[in-house]
Amino acid sequence: MAAKKKTEAANRFPKATEKDFTVIVKPLITEKTMALMQNENKVTVKVLDSANKTEIKLAFERIFQVKVTDVKVINQRAKETTRGTRYAGSISGFKKAVVTVAEGEAIDLFKE
Asked: Which residues have a Cβ under 8 Å from the Cβ of 99 and sit 6 or more positions away?
C-alpha cells in the first residue's frame, strides 16, 4: 500500500532539478514556525532573494512531492545590533516563504 502511494506521488510531480535546490535555502526552525507546522500545516523556509512565489511553489512540490495550496513571501530586513556595550554588528536580511501544504499531506523535515 505504501509503495503504491509513493508511485502515485512520483507520477504527479516531476523530478527535482538543481535549480529547485538553490531556490529553497534552508528551513527556519523556531517555536512559532513549529507551531504553524503542527497546527496549520505550514512550513517556513529561507529562500533565494531573487525567487518569486511561482518558483518557490514549483520547487517545493518537486523536492517534497506534496501539493502546495498557498505561498506567502516576506522580506526580512537587516538589523543593527550590539554585542554587549562595545561591539556594534549587524544581522543580515533575507527572504523567507511560508508555504501551506494541502490538507492530508505532510512534510517530515527531521528524517532519522
From this structure: 42, 43, 44, 45, 56, 57, 60, 68, 70, 71
Rg (CA), the chain: 17
Q: Which of 111, 8, 9 is nearest to 63 (CA)?
A: 9
All structural domains of the chain with their residue ranges: 2-101
102 with 67: CB under 8 angstroms? yes
Reduced to 3 states, what is the DSSP secondary structure of residue 17?
Answer: coil
Q: DSSP states of 57-79 as a string? A: HHHHHHHH---EEEEEEEEEPPE
Backbone angles phi, psi at 49, to 5 degrees: -60, -30
Name 70's bridge partners. 100
Which is nearest to 96 in space by CA: 38, 34, 29? 29
What tens digit of pLDDT does each residue of 42-90 get? 999 999 999 999 999 999 999 989 999 999 999 999 999 988 888 899 9
- Per CATH, is 2-101 categorized as 3.30.70.330? yes
